[in-house]
Amino acid sequence: MKRLILIFSLFFILSSSVLAETDYLALYEQAQPYHSTFFNNVDPWQDEDSLKYAWSPYPLFRTSEDLYFKNLYKIDAGYYLLTPRKIEDKYYVLFKQNGKVKFIIPAVKVTDTPINFYPQNAPHKKQTVWNKMGQKLANVANGVCKDNKRQKPPQSLLKLENLKPYYVLHFYYGDKCYIMVFKNTNL
C-alpha cells in the first residue's frame, strides 16, 4: 500500500511539473505593445543611469536574423542595447541603437532571478597567472586611492531559445528576468 501511494505521489509531482510549463504562445498573444513613443526617441531615464555607473549598464544584444513582434515591429538584424523599464505599471524592454529608442517591446513575463544564478550560468573569463597578479595589484591600488564613486553595473545575461515558430528571449538583469517572445517569420 505504501508503495502504491509513493508511486501515485511521484506521478502527481512529475505530471504537475510538466503541466507547469509556460505557454509562450498564449503569453505572446496576450502581450499589448506600447503604443506611445518618447520625445525624439530618447529614453528620459538614460542620464540617471549613466551617472551612477562607470560604463553602460545595459547589455548589448546581437541578432543575426530579423525578429518580428505582432506584425507591428520588424527588428532588423544588428546590435541593440537592451534597457528594461517599468512604464505605467507594465514592464517593457527598450531596444536602442545609437542612443535612440528603436523599439519598445513588452515583457510577457517577469520573474525573479534565482539566488546564485550569475556565478553558475555566466561565462567566466580565463586569466593567466600574470593577469591574476595584475588584478590583485589593481584591487589594492583602488582600495587605497578611490578616484570616483561610480559603481559596477548590475549583472546581466541573455539567453535565446528557439521554439521553432518563436524565439523566447530571457533577459536577466540584476534581480529580474524579463521574458520576451518573437516570431522568426512575419506571418
Protein traits:
187 residues, 4-stranded antiparallel beta sheet, 33% strand, globular
Account of the 3D structure:
- The protein has 187 residues and is of the alpha+beta class.
- The chain has a domain at 22-116 and 155-183.
- The N and C termini lie far apart (54 Å).
- The chain contains five helices and ten strands.
Q: Outline, from the CA principal axes?
A: globular
Strand tally is 10
Strand arrangement, largest sheet? 1-4-5-6
Structural class: alpha+beta
Rounded to an integer in angstroms, the radius of gyration calculated over CA atoms is 21 Å
Helix fraction bin: 25-40%
Q: Point out poorly predicted stretches.
A: 4-8, 10-20
Number of helices: 5
Q: Would you list the SSEs in sequence order as H and E?
A: HHHEEEEEEEHHEEE
> What number is the mean pLDDT?
82
Distance between the termini: 54 Å
- Beta-strand portion reads 25-35%
Q: What's the story with the biggest beta sheet? A: 4 strands, antiparallel
Write the layout of secondary structure elements.
Elements: H1 2-19, H2 24-30, H3 46-52, E1 60-63, E2 67-69, E3 73-75, E4 78-87, E5 90-97, E6 100-106, E7 109-112, H4 117-121, H5 129-144, E8 156-162, E9 166-173, E10 176-183
